[in-house]
Amino acid sequence: xxxxxxxxxxxxxxxxxxxxxxxxxxxxxxxxxxxxxxxxxxxxxxxxxxxxxxxxxxxxxxxxxxxxxxxxxxxxxxxxxxxxxxxxxxxxxxxxxxxxxxxxxxxxxxxxxxxxxxxxxxxxxxxxxxxxxxxxxxxxxxxxxxxxxxxxxxxxxxxxxxxxxxxxxxxxxxxxxxxxxxxxxxxxxxxxxxxxxxxxxxxxxxxxxxxxxxxxxxxxxxxxxxxxxxxxxxxxxxxxxxxxxxxxxxxxxxxxxxxxxxxxxxxxxxxxxxxxxxxxxxxxxxxxxxxxxxxxxxxxxxxxxxxxxxxxxxxxxxxxxxxxxxxxxxxxxxxxxxxxxxxxxxxxxxxxxxxxxxxxxxxxxxxxxxxxxxxxxxxxxxxxxxxxxxxxxxxxxxxxxxxxxxxxxxxxxxxxxxxxxxxxxxxxxxxxxxxxxxxxxxx
Length: 443
Prior knowledge:
The protein is of the alpha+beta class. It folds into 2 domains: 5-130, SH3 type barrels (Roll); 139-438, Fumarylacetoacetase-like, C-terminal domain (Fumarylacetoacetate hydrolase, domain 2, Alpha-Beta Complex). It is 19% helix and 26% strand. It has helices spanning 57-62, 68-74, 83-88, 90-104, 109-112, 117-121, 146-156, 251-257, 307-312, 326-330, 350-357, 386-389; strands at 32-37, 45-50, 53-56, 122-124, 128-130, 139-142, 172-174, 180-182, 187-188, 191-194, 203-206, 210-211, 214-220, 239-246, 249-250, 271-273, 278-279, 287-288, 314-315, 318-324, 336-342, 369-371, 397-398, 404-405, 413-422, 425-438. The strands form 7 sheets. Strands 6, 7, 8, 13, 14, 16, 17 and 22 form an 8-stranded mixed sheet that branches. Strands 4-3-2-1-5 form a 5-stranded antiparallel sheet. β23 (397-398) and β24 form a beta hairpin. It is globular, with a radius of gyration of 22 Å. 46% of the residues are buried.
């Protein structure tokens, strides 16, 4: 898309907190989510983050604040998920976003004629419970970071880290959608089969190598008919926006079970999803070139190549992981930043993931979640999971308390954050994706 008035870096909101240079949610963002007032006996509904407030779309509809085109779209936002909005398509969500920007801007007739309307259409984020934004029908997890694939491969295959297909095909697997949870939901340490050595039988018990994975998720809007692939240049029309994903992993369970069919119980116990979906429209000022492939890398096959994707298929998102132990919280210490990386380091773009996923005729549906796989960079500080960051436990992290971590302990809280910053543009952020590790349940 081309930039429009919703991207204007000089646009300001009559909600003062939205004009703070450090907020994730300026008027140029307007991400969609689902909420209800904390402690209230009321249904969940669609909201939009703006500064430290949530704009209640249903309340705006009741006040008659939308134009005719956006009114029909807003009627889909009275449900307890984004799925009805997703089914209308990306252009419909864009129409609604444009009207929301007009309602919230300084000088908006809506606010100028009735300042009291703020109390009727806004809910403080601090007084709201944020819900899972979509009913995830299908969940696909990719392996799109070449640095992550190289690091993990070198631990197990030092002489041949990357398998022969990696630079030709976006690798992925179908995950478990039922165990997706919203940020803030605790994660129970899973149990399963593990085997320590190359000999002897496996044992059954709690994982000793619980890990996080820093990922970016793409939320599907309109899908495609079964048997009809989506072309590369049309792929992003089928994505509403992006969110943060923590694909929790039990590395010792994974090591025993993954051959020959791949991840299963080591991944299916929980996947944390951030509550706000940042639209691709809001991310337009932060587009970047696709990963610069070395000259000796193979060119993508024709269905995975276009000049448009090469020129602007990337998104420049800074991604951070923080860790807070129970002791750190008891001592009121700030979370420790474990890593910081960038989404521009991904070998495969969002559009390539969509095009490949549907290339065999597989049908995507509104609400499907496509995750990037662990986002890692070339530096040690940009590795997006503990398996890499501690190099399989041989280089433990030292926390500010003096505690060490090879993998996660009970009571640890993992916090993912993401944001886009570029000179001349307001910061656009994703908020947080959090989860505290609870002990395994005993038999």
